[in-house]
Design brief:
By secondary structure, this protein is α/β, with parallel strands linked by helices. It contains 9 helices and 11 strands. The strands form 2 sheets. A 6-stranded parallel β-sheet has the order 3-2-1-4-5-6, sandwiched between helices. Strands 7-8-11-9-10 form a 5-stranded antiparallel β-sheet. Strand 9 and strand 10 form a beta hairpin. The longest helix is centred in the first third of the chain and has 40 residues. It is elongated, with a radius of gyration of 34 Å.
């Protein structure tokens, strides 16, 4: 709340609260001294008592302290109130400055953007996170261009379809670009990126068959669907190795296929189904918009899941549907 006020206003509010606290303490002191302890006092003594209490000075000149039980309880409560006012006000004044220093320090330590032969990821979502983690694991340099680019990856804050944002990502010297937004935005990204770099590979995400031709015409090299975007294959795309395709052969006699989970398979683990022996090696599960890569044998399948697996020639059709 405090950080939304300008520094001048925060300082004014703090001074008003401090003056009000001193006045409350002084008034209470005079009332207790006069009507409870039946002693005469002065305004100077009252103000001294208030300031000495809230500053936790811990010492009162003789005759100024409150000696009655009521006075002692008032001193305790006033001390708590005063400390809250002092420390709360200091925090309100100092915390925005500390936050600014922290933000500047984070900004200064921001991961540098690769200059050439890197991958540009356009958009930030669950798929981009998976791709970024994989690229980091296989030591392929990359940069993320998004309106909310994360701080733990090299990033540029901006619209991925904007030429200036792509220039900041050094797209002119990039080896590949992966567009991970919706089809319309991916078309804009591709058209803009192609104006800056005609040689790099461009991979785009598409969920609709009718959008694939448009993406290809705009300059996309490979159009992929969300569930087929497996990080175990990305390094081949990025390096320009198109000897494999999803519906055909990859790595010799291995093929990649999809299997929709029905009621008969739901509630069972891959291990229980002997999936590896009977069907193939599961390399991913697409579940309600999320991609689970390298699933464990204990992973319980749910109805509607799409299991992505590698099948070799030695695997026969077992009848699992």
């Amino acid at each position: 709340m405090w950080s939304s006020f300008p520094l001048k206003n925060r300082l004014l509010i703090f001074l008003l609260m401090l003056i009000s606290t001193i006045l409350v303490g002084s008034l209470g002191y005079v009332i207790i001294k006069t009507y409870v302890e039946h002693e005469s006092t002065s305004l100077t003594n009252a103000i001294f008592f208030s300031i000495a209490t809230i500053s936790t000075l811990g010492h009162y000149p003789r005759g100024i302290e409150l000696t009655s039980d009521v006075g002692k309880w008032f001193t305790i409560l006033y001390l708590i109130l005063g400390m809250g006012t002092i420390f709360g006000g200091i925090q309100a004044l100092v915390s925005p400055w500390i936050e600014m220093k922290i933000r500047n320090a984070i900004k200064e330590r921001k991961i540098p953007i690769p200059k050439d032969a890197h991958v540009v990821l356009c958009g930030w979502n669950d798929i981009a996170r998976e791709v970024g983690e994989y690229l980091q694991m296989v030591d392929i340099p990359f940069v993320i261009v998004a309106k909310d680019a994360p701080l733990n990856f090299p990033g540029v804050n901006g619209d991925p379809g904007d030429m200036d944002a792509l220039k900041l990502a050094n797209v002119e010297r990039a080896s590949a670009l992966i567009a991970l937004l919706d089809e319309k935005k991916n078309v804009v990204i591709t058209l803009t990126a192609r104006r800056l770099n005609r040689e790099m590979r461009i991979i785009a995400l598409s969920e609709r068959e009718e959008s694939k031709n448009l993406l290809i015409k705009s300059g996309v090299d490979v159009v992929i669907s969300r569930e087929k975007l497996l990080r175990s294959l990305l390094d081949h795309w990025i390096k320009g190795d198109f000897t494999h395709i999803f519906s055909g052969e990859i790595f010799g006699d291995l093929k990649i296929k999809e299997l929709s989970v029905g009621k008969d398979m739901a509630g069972k683990s891959l291990k229980e189904l002997r999936f590896r022996e009977r069907v193939g090696t599961a390399i991913g599960i697409y579940r309600r918009g999320l991609l689970i890569t390298n699933p464990k044998a204990e992973e319980i399948l749910k109805e509607g899941d799409i299991v992505i697996f590698m099948e070799g020639e030695n695997h026969a059709d077992t009848g699992i549907q």
